[in-house]
Request: fold
Amino acid sequence: MKPPPFRYHTPRFLPEALDLLRESPGDARVLAGGQSLVPLLNLRLAYPDVLVDLNQVEGLSYIRDDGDRLRIGAMTRQREAEFSELLGERCPLLIEALAQVGHPAIRNRGTIGGSLAHADPVAELPCVMTALDAELVATGPDGERVIAAGEFFLAPYETALSPGEILVEVRVPSTPAVPAASFVEFSRRHGDFALAEAAAVLEGDGTLTGARVVAAGPAWTPSRLEPVERLMAASGVGRTDSAAQRDLVEETGRAAEAAVAGLAVHADATAYQQRLAAVLVKRAVLQALERWSRN
Reply:
């Protein structure tokens, strides 16, 4: 398998990369880790005229604590983020999801921003960033703009990035006490693409006051399940009330089935996949509640 012909550029600085995208005739694509784009090229499913390789661009790989948020450079390798002590302490949900991305060899090259910009509907990072209410920072001809994760993913492999824009950073809100959270997925074999996945992030100290619940797989994009979130926020469940938590999990499972069924599912989605997503939502909520109770 060989890719189609293309012109290849390796800029050293971000303005240079933006200039190349702006000046390139025809279809220009950005290359990050290459774990998704290169197979598409080799299979002749992508035909860019120009590839702009970001691997030599300075200043796009970092993990920083900015006080009220964690900032992750788009070219940060997934494996580096997976073993980051800062993320392990402040954002363990991201670590949990990263450990389920393909195999270590893929995570060694794959980047945080590359996975998000690729926007595979069953990729782990889009689901988790939506649940974390993250912000994605893009830079382009008109300057910098910040896009909420919930508005970034428009369709399979389609994002809110405009032509000529590059995703440069991810910002994850930081809280004084890291809320209990969980990410679960199901695939036929370890390392395979997931059939469905779910993430849950709880809010509240002694009493549950809110939640962000996301399902991915049967729908076009990772989807917040607002009926489930409203149910959990109104439950008033206490941290030590295990009986009430068990009841809430059962109610959540029923609400998740109805919520997933109401999503705009893609043509290839099956009833099994919808049912699976609802079951995973229930498991994610259960696990998040268990972690919340132990804090």
